[in-house]
Amino acid sequence: MNSPQPLISVVIPTYNRIHYLESALRSVLQQTYPNVEVIVADDHSPEDPTALIASFQDPRIRLRRNSQNLGNGPNIALAFQEAQGDYVASLNDDDTWDPHFLERLVQPLEAHPNLVAAFCDHYIMDGTGRVDEALSAENSQRWKRDRLPEGIHQPFWSIGLVDQSVSPASSALLRRSMIDWPELINVGVYWDYYLTYLACCKGYGAYYCPEKLTYYRIHENSETTQSGGKNAAAKIRKGRSGTFCYSQFLQDPNLQEHYSYFLRKWVEAKTTWGIGLLRAGELKEARTHLTEALGKQFNLRTFYALILSFIARSNSLNQANSASSYSGEVS
Known about the structure:
Distance between the termini: 51 Å
CATH class of the largest domain: Alpha Beta
Structural class: alpha/beta
Oligomer: single chain
Order of helices and strands: EHEHEHEEHEHEHEHEHHHHHH
Shape: globular
Number of helices: 13
Radius of gyration: 20 Å
Number of domains: 2
Strand content: 15-25%
Low-confidence stretches: 314-320, 322-331
Helix content: 40-55%
CATH architecture of the largest domain: Alpha-Beta Complex
């Protein structure tokens, strides 16, 4: 007699993107692996997704709707803590999965109890769902997945935190019992990057599947686009969360061989935080972060932004924008 399939919990964090959420949900319900629970974690959207979820008439879906807006990090962290599955996966509300995503990634986890994660490559698509093959290939190269051998990697600190080949926001399946979920609650928008840290920090292994089983959507309203552009609030969220992550990594004795890398990234994150504050007109607080960053390591972008903080008026956002464009900053 065959043993029952383990339960997989799928968490879909969402905020006011019902037109994309429907596609994300449909891609989960069409998985060839059927034993799933789906937690839609709505962060108090003005556009209530209750009717959309009811329209699927599928008992595997449940809505977790916050009574107030908590932000992306706490929203998904709380949803993860409610998951009941042996394995958990996240799917951004604007992304979708290939029908074989869960079936393909659960196999190595079932076969190897010492693995904490299985992850895959992904396509890049635009706001309309059109796949960009060239950008997809470029993305794989950027995060070194194009040269990463299929199979088990243990430990995977370098792959996960330096190369950043793992994308748990939409392209990984995790063994729930091996993650310290409460530690995720205060991370902020870098929750997926920190989740990679929580997965690899104890020395467990990960399995890489080179197939592109996820469709990652890039559009003007995504957090990645907003934080890489001129949105001051998004820039502050990105800088604050990045600073938290890199501070933790710098203190971990397992990561000391990468200390110089994480120090450089900490300075970049502090600078991003400072530039966001500069754009928001919070000049005094911006100077604090920029001065701290320069005190750790010289960075031309940081130096330029600090100079601007002394000559800019509180509403002079154009000058703050120059600090970012001067360095060729990208998200």
